[in-house]
Amino acid sequence: MAVKYIFVTGGVLSSLGKGITSSSIATLLQHSGFDVSILKIDPYINVDPGTMSPLEHGEVFVTCDGAETDLDIGHYERFLNKDFHKTNNFTTGQVYMSVIENERKGKYLGKTIQIVPHIVDEIKSRIKLAGEGSEFLIVELGGTVGDIEGMPYLEAMRQMKHELGSKQVISIHVTLIPLVRAAGELKTKPTQHSVQELRRIGISPQILVARCERSLDKELKRKLAMSCDVDDDSVIVAEDTESIYKCPLNFLDEGILTPIARHLELKELKPKMDNWDMLVKKIIAPKSSVTIGFVGKYLSLKESYKSLIESLIHAGANTDTKVNIKWIDSESVEENPALLYDVDSILVPGGFGERGIQGKLEAIRYAREKKIPFLGICLGMQLSLIEFARNVLGIKEADSVEFNPQSKEPIIYLIEDFIDTQGKKQLRTHTSPMGGTMRLGEYECHIKKGTKLYEAYGQKSLIKERHRHRYEANPKYRELFANNGMIISGECNGLIESIELENHPWFVAVQFHPEFTSRLQNPNPIILAFVKQTLAHKKQ
Ligand code: GLN
């Protein structure tokens, strides 16, 4: 079957949940038996979000092939339970970079380079590339209709429909129906204007997804359908829900598949959602509950821990447990360690920079000494090594060169040093314009038999997980660690990928980011094991 395209645009304002809408539609099609792919287009000029501040951009998601992408790619993987790649996210920066490189190479044979056709052609070819080999491609366009930077993309969508026809391309517009409290009324006018703007560009959406606080009655739905020129069954109400994972089920109840099937000339779609439904029920009404102390530094920016938060929800759904997160600001732990006293386990996530390090070290020490289940991720593992070196091995100056470049005891040091000493480049790193190199994407990890990691991963001795970091545990100290009760449970080409403590019920830290591979239907094994340990500790 030739690829069918579903374009998802947003109207009125941003943050309406286009990512969740796109993921939900993709999930319903996938569960109807189709091979579905999905693409996020970011109309900003940055080449990727890798160098953007967490203030500007929530989490930077990392794909298996090492691309730093928008966090929506994380939603796509979590909903669709499959890996996406570099090609599933692109930005205006990448589009222009390709076109300008081609121009420099003389590929356009001396023509004047313009937005139409050259930029638009580059956009179309990237969209087609993302859809290759799939039956459906959902294309989510970032931003809001009417934004200047979105124009070339809307033109590309219009052209694709013109070229491929209306059985191959449809457009869904996600919009807001605000409630004006003073009048007690839901207002459709902003949506009408937004759709008018789309039509001015030559796109008439076939389906409206209307975000609203309260349900629309039949009459209002009909009014919207009439004014926006969609069929009566094509106004899909998306009310706020208890869990994002309920959205596919809500869309199904609202009948979104009927107009999709009609426009794209598909047989009746009957997605099998039983297992999904069961997991959602466990998210919404779980049997047990636990509280994890999450010791982080961007607590006002929870979006920057998106994948980790979701991975805990997945582990909760699969153990019928509500995983409450107690957000503990790492800087406050320094002054007030009592913040840690009432939690069932402690999690120290990844992070960059020096701020809040002392508090995280305190939290790690507390978990180690009081034998509380502990999971450290990336920076969390690096700090676990430093804490152990300082407080158990007595190496007072133990540090990371990230915080102390002149450290005499660089327990954590730069990857480049490792590459140099090995004499060959065995790591996939990328040099960012900021001058640093990062270890990015999926790497193998060889697991030592009999360890907690080995048990967590179902007694597998070889796994793959994703990385995003600049520094590494220094192998020079490994003997010292191993002789004093710290087990190196995972390795990759001599690099230390995970550690655990001998005399502790469950203290595990990993250099990789397990949260990037967690999915609702397939929770990440180490996070699942951590939640199970948290539950067991609470029962004690
Ligand atoms: N800042 C550390 C590094 O660059 C850890 C990064 C992380 O936790 N993602 O190695």
UniProtKB/TrEMBL annotation:
Residues 4-266 form the CTP synthase N-terminal domain. CTP binds at residues 14, 147-149, 187-192, 223. Residues 302-531 form the Glutamine amidotransferase domain. The keyword rRNA-binding does not apply. Mg(2+) binds at residues 72, 140. It catalyses: UTP + L-glutamine + ATP + H2O = CTP + L-glutamate + ADP + phosphate + 2 H(+); L-glutamine + H2O = L-glutamate + NH4(+); UTP + NH4(+) + ATP = CTP + ADP + phosphate + 2 H(+). L-glutamine binds at residues 351, 379-382, 402, 470. One of its GO terms (molecular function) is glutaminase activity. Pathway: Pyrimidine metabolism; CTP biosynthesis via de novo pathway; CTP from UDP: step 2/2. One of its GO terms (cellular component) is cytoophidium. The active site is at 378 (nucleophile), 513, 515. ATP binds at residues 15-20, 72. Keywords: ATP-binding, Glutamine amidotransferase, Ligase, Magnesium, Metal-binding, Nucleotide-binding, Pyrimidine biosynthesis. Its EC number is 6.3.4.2. Gene3D superfamilies: 3.40.50.880, P-loop containing nucleotide triphosphate hydrolases. Allosterically activated by GTP, when glutamine is the substrate; GTP has no effect on the reaction when ammonia is the substrate. The allosteric effector GTP functions by stabilizing the protein conformation that binds the tetrahedral intermediate(s) formed during glutamine hydrolysis. Inhibited by the product CTP, via allosteric rather than competitive inhibition. UTP binds at residues 14, 187-192, 223. It holds the Pfam family CTP_synth_N. GO terms for biological process: 'de novo' CTP biosynthetic process; pyrimidine nucleobase biosynthetic process. Residues 1-266 are annotated as: Amidoligase domain. It comes from the Bacteria. Catalyzes the ATP-dependent amination of UTP to CTP with either L-glutamine or ammonia as the source of nitrogen. Regulates intracellular CTP levels through interactions with the four ribonucleotide triphosphates. Belongs to the CTP synthase family. CTPSs have evolved a hybrid strategy for distinguishing between UTP and CTP. The overlapping regions of the product feedback inhibitory and substrate sites recognize a common feature in both compounds, the triphosphate moiety. To differentiate isosteric substrate and product pyrimidine rings, an additional pocket far from the expected kinase/ligase catalytic site, specifically recognizes the cytosine and ribose portions of the product inhibitor. Homotetramer. This is CTP synthase. It comes from Helicobacter magdeburgensis.
